[in-house]
Amino acid sequence: MGRRRLDDLPPHSRRGFFATSLSRLLRPLAEAIEERLPMELPVVRMHLRPPGAIEEKAFLETCYRCGSCVDACPVGAILQKKSGEEDETNGTPVIAANVRACVVCDKLACMNACPSGALKLVDKYGIRVGLAVVNHELCVRGKGEECRECIDRCPMGKTAIQLWSNGMVNIIDPERTGRGCVGCGVCQQYCPVEPQKAIQIKPY
Questions:
Q1: Please, which residues bridge with residue 78 across strands?
Q2: Which pLDDT value is given to residue 6?
Q3: Which of 29, 121, 141, 198 is the one with CA 20 to 30 A from 184?
Q4: What phi, psi does 202 have (nearest 5°)?
């Protein structure tokens, strides 16, 4: 008995034939793409974490929500996040820089107090809470005022923040220089511009 021609097959059989053939053709391509693409997308950090915080996805999986870092902070800069809706960030430690910033204490207390490993001990120049970003349109120096609050109060000093030759505030990015802004938030806390601060910390 001869092989049946494709035209002799009923419509549903022809559809199955084409679907199977297409699947076989595309499978190697799909497997190649799958090998090149990351299996999981990174979790974007939306909050300022205490110094030494590991990558956000791992942080959320590792942090005990125990409050040890909150209790250890000598200036009360670390709070436990609470919201009306249950989500995976509830109970995790955050820094609200407008209220109370990290002062990069000599004891590096929060990192030393963390029992879970969500905060890893690094030296003060290795801290990466975030990076300060200046809105020069809001900054009063752009309006002729001689404000230096952010510069004079920065615990990292000239390694993190300076004045440009034109008198405007310049943030030193540690990713470019090895040392620079650690994102402690002191500049944001003491910036006199209200209601929106002229300098704000963007989380790493």
A1: 95
A2: 46
A3: 141
A4: -100, 125
> Structure tokens of 105?
């204490």
Q: What is the DSSP secondary structure assignment for residue 151, as one 8-state letter?
A: H
**How is 172-195 classified by DSSP, letter by letter?**
PPHHHHSS------HHHHH----S
DSSP assignment of 4-65 equals PPGGGS-HHHHHHHHHHHHHHHHHHHHHHHHHHS-SSPPPPP-SPPPTTB--HHHHHHH---
Rounded Cα gap, residues 111 and 160, in angstroms: 21
Lookup: tokens for 45: 């950090």
Q: Mapping DSSP to helix (H, G, I), strand (E, B) and coil, where does residue 196 land?
A: coil
Query: Tokens representing 79?
Result: 């709070």
For 56-203, give the CATH class: alpha beta
* Number of continuous H segments (helices) and E segments (strands) in the chain: 7, 6
CA–CA gap between residue 105 and residue 90 (Å, rounded): 26
Judged against a pLDDT cut of 60, whether residue 153 lies above it is answered with yes
The CA distance from 104 to 183, in Å, is 10
Higher pLDDT pick, 151 / 43: 151
Query: Which contiguous run of DSSP H or E holds residue 149?
Result: helix 149-153
Q: What residues does each domain of the chain span? A: 56-203
